[in-house]
Amino acid sequence: MIEDSFLHKGLRRKLVDQVKNKGITDQRILDAIQKIPRHAFIDSSFLKFAYQDQAFPISSGQTISQPFTVAFQTQLIDIKLYDKVLEVGTGSGYQAAVLAEMGARVYTIERIRKLHQEAQLIHRELGYQIKFFLGDGYKGLPSYAPFDKILITAAAPDIPEELKHQLKTGGILVAPIGNQDGQVMTKCVRTGEDTFEITKHGNFAFVPMKEGLE
Ligand code: SAH
After folding, report:
1. Quick check: 55 pLDDT over 90?
2. Is residue 210 included in any domain, yes or no?
3. What residues are labeled active site?
4. Would 99 be classed as within a structural domain?
């Protein structure tokens, strides 16, 4: 059982204020952060870190993204009700929960089996209906494509070609593009069969996107 007390809710209210002050205006995102027990996605011995606006280590050398970063990517990708969304890099499963809470149909892919399994357990307890896949996000999910939105939550050197072509026309892909020294948040809109519109949205630091299964 995941305990969610008044203390947790109060801490989340403060977190929501911080994220809002940093420029997140979409109320549906703020409501999702208010509602989701982020502490359930973090090792219970680090409870006090769950509601700081910081990235935090999870198992297998990976991280749960900073809440502001989750909110920023979610805002950029402009989630609409029933959007079919592919998330690359399940990690803790927190970002997937935010998307589900906003009414998206979420498909999430992770290359590390342990994380893939742990995230599913948490989601089962919290009652989210998400499709989890163990695999290489560089390949996407061709048999489920096309997607309205694709959200990459690990740093890629370039926008993966395969993924661009798994977008619907008018669909949006958001990804941190760069190397281990830092990445630029990049938004790619598919405007036609082979045309894409790219815009850049500031500097971020993510763990790297790696090829193949672990
Ligand atoms: N969205 C996550 C953040 C995870 S960190 C959250 O909300 O917690 C990035 C994740 O991407 C890591 O778990 C890492 O293992 C995963 N990853 C890296 N390369 C990948 C790939 N090619 N395919 C799928 N997942 C990948």
Report:
1. yes
2. no
3. 65
4. yes
